[in-house]
Design a protein that fits this description.
Length: 420
């Protein structure tokens, strides 16, 4: 036996910190000093020097002809629908299992999110349910590449082409992932990336839109730059209402350094995750999501471990998470809720234009999403896999300890010493 659970007074498996995130060093310090000395710190003219350089570098990395940077990864999604001139009030089919930024961005573009359930093997949007959800008002699909999985871009691309729909990849978790050797964000009409603090490529905040369409790219740069039409962005007739959504030179300079680090970080995570997956297969009650062979480079913003309570005598997932946290493992259960149940996606008509127009998601039920959110998914942050093999072994030891003490979790009274 691995000893008494820390949750009930035993010694924790882990009492030392995990790898720090984000990682930085001399290159980032030099880049920030370079911007400081330049006295050109902001985003105008857009893109400024560092931003323009990062746009070119990130476009080459992803495999998209154009990149437009912006303030964050929610605005980046909104901008895709605006640049494509999606109709006001149009429906955008998206997943029920994501961060509130995904439907919030759809509402921000004046459109209505239509949620569908997810595939049980990837927790990404289920293409068959996408097809069933399309109506005459549907103009776009917005799949989310979730955690360490990618949405089925073959099937979604076929649906979008056949039905004449825009395909927007939400790649907030997928910097560097590849589908059939094509970069996430280069397969659909647009890719949207977040550079928020916890993301695989970060400057604290920031967003990016990728596209290979020349006119879409020009509209994006205009929308980000208060609607201005700079001389190189005049191939479209519209004068659009834009906003100041420009990224700063500080962020762009840091992102250039972080992009240089990204391939080596992916390699480290990949090696540690492979070791973890090999070990998990020996632990009843815990499993990993299947690998889709079409994902030719998998990334892991978070690693999702699937829990089956039947193997631990019905102990609830959240109780297992409490036990793992007590053992020193950073992990989460309700990382995302079904979006129609998430209080952050409020139907308040004063702030949610779709709700004001009569959209109502309250009665919808998404069984696979609910099972993932409340019963199955254990989310492990990517920095847990940036360290050593010993870190992975601590994760496996903690899981084994929880498994071996399932009876104690089921009946905490059994772990208490008898009264004298």
């Amino acid at each position: 036996m691995a000893g008494k659970l820390a949750l009930h007074g035993g010694t924790a498996v882990r009492d030392r910190p995990w790898s720090d995130w984000p990682e930085f060093g001399a290159p980032e310090r030099e880049a920030l000093a370079r911007v400081l000395d330049s006295r050109s710190w902001g985003g105008f003219p857009s893109p400024n020097t560092e931003a323009a350089a990062f746009e070119a570098e990130f476009g080459a990395y992803v495999g998209a002809r154009h990149v437009a940077l912006c303030a964050n990864g929610t605005f980046s999604l909104t901008l895709t629908l605006q640049a494509a001139r999606v109709s006001p009030g149009a429906e955008v089919v998206t997943t029920a299992y994501s961060f509130v930024g995904t439907p919030g961005a759809i509402v921000g573009a004046g459109c209505v999110p239509v949620f569908v359930d997810v595939d049980p093997d990837s927790y990404c949007i289920d293409p068959e349910q996408v097809e069933a959800a399309i109506t005459p008002r549907t103009e776009a699909l917005m799949p989310v590449h979730l955690a360490c999985s990618m949405a089925d871009l073959d099937r979604l691309g076929e649906i979008a082409e056949r039905r004449g729909l825009l395909l927007v990849e939400d790649c907030a978790h997928a910097h560097g992932a590849r589908w059939r050797d094509r970069g996430a964000g280069s397969v659909g009409d647009f890719g949207s990336f977040s550079m928020q603090s916890t993301k695989l490529l970060t400057a604290g905040e920031g967003g990016a839109v990728t596209t290979s369409d020349d006119v879409y790219a020009q509209r994006l740069h205009s929308l980000v730059n208060c609607g201005r039409k700079e001389p190189e962005y005049r191939d479209f007739p519209e004068q659009m209402l834009g906003h100041n959504l420009r990224i700063t030179e500080w962020q762009a300079a840091v992102l250039r350094c972080q992009l240089e680090r990204l391939p080596e970080q992916h390699a480290r995570r990949t090696a540690r995750i492979a070791r973890f997956e090999d070990g998990v297969c020996d632990l009843p009650g815990f499993s990993t999501l299947p690998h889709d062979p079409r994902v030719t480079r998998r990334t892991a913003y978070q690693f999702i471990l699937r829990y089956d309570a039947r193997a631990l005598s019905g102990v609830p997932r959240d109780t297992v998470i409490q036990a793992l946290q007590a053992e020193g493992v950073r992990c989460f259960g309700q990382f995302y809720l079904p979006l129609n149940e998430d209080p952050l996606f409020s139907p308040d008509p004063h702030t949610n234009a779709a709700a004001r127009a009569g959209a109502d998601w309250s009665e919808q039920v998404y069984p696979v999403t609910r099972r993932a959110a409340y019963d199955e998914a254990i989310w492990l942050p990517h920095e847990l896999f940036l360290g050593s093999d010993a870190d992975v072994d601590d994760l496996l030891t903690a899981l084994a300890k929880v498994h071996e003490n399932a009876a104690e979790l089921r009946d905490p009274a059994a772990a208490a010493p008898a009264a004298g």
